[in-house]
Amino acid sequence: MLTKKELKILKQFSNCNYVKSRELEELLDVSNKTARKMISQLSDKIKFYGAVIESKPGKGYILEVRDEELFNKIFDEKEIVFVDSESRWEYLVKLFIESDTYLKIDDLAEDLYVSRKVISNSIKTAEEFLNIYNLYLIRKPHYGIQLTGEEYDKRR
């Protein structure tokens, strides 16, 4: 599971070959020590996805991808941890729009590694946003929550 900051780091690697810890400090607004620690933790995580971050003295860090197909799976939304409420409710909006079935709060909480209470609050925020576009969440006991509305409104 990746955080948004870890995704920022990976994006920075895609923009240039070598990344210095000072650049990461500025990008993430953290100390040098924290940036180096985050690189170390990220390197441990991405080993399972066929990649590694190596340090080259005087040049910085470089991302080496050994299995491109496996590495691309890291960007699957299910591999991203939504640590802030804004990204969580935005993800829920997208999920409700793309889903034709009922979604249960327990399943959503488990998928996003948060409590039922956190999911309920995020759903309320998502619902307020969806209502602006004449889209509504229907709650059905023992089934879950489903989005209703015109197809035109879903595509706006």
TrEMBL record:
Where along the sequence do coiled-coil regions lie? none
**Per the database record, which ranges form the Helix-turn-helix type domain?**
6-62, 88-143
| Gene3D superfamilies in the cross-refs | Winged helix-like DNA-binding domain superfamily/Winged helix DNA-binding domain (1.10.10.10)
Superkingdom, according to UniProt?
A: Bacteria
What InterPro entries does the record point to?
BglG_antiterminators, HTH_11, WH-like_DNA-bd_sf, WH_DNA-bd_sf
Family matches, as PANTHER family: CRYPTIC BETA-GLUCOSIDE BGL OPERON ANTITERMINATOR, LICABCH OPERON REGULATOR-RELATED
Name under which the protein is recorded? Transcriptional antiterminator
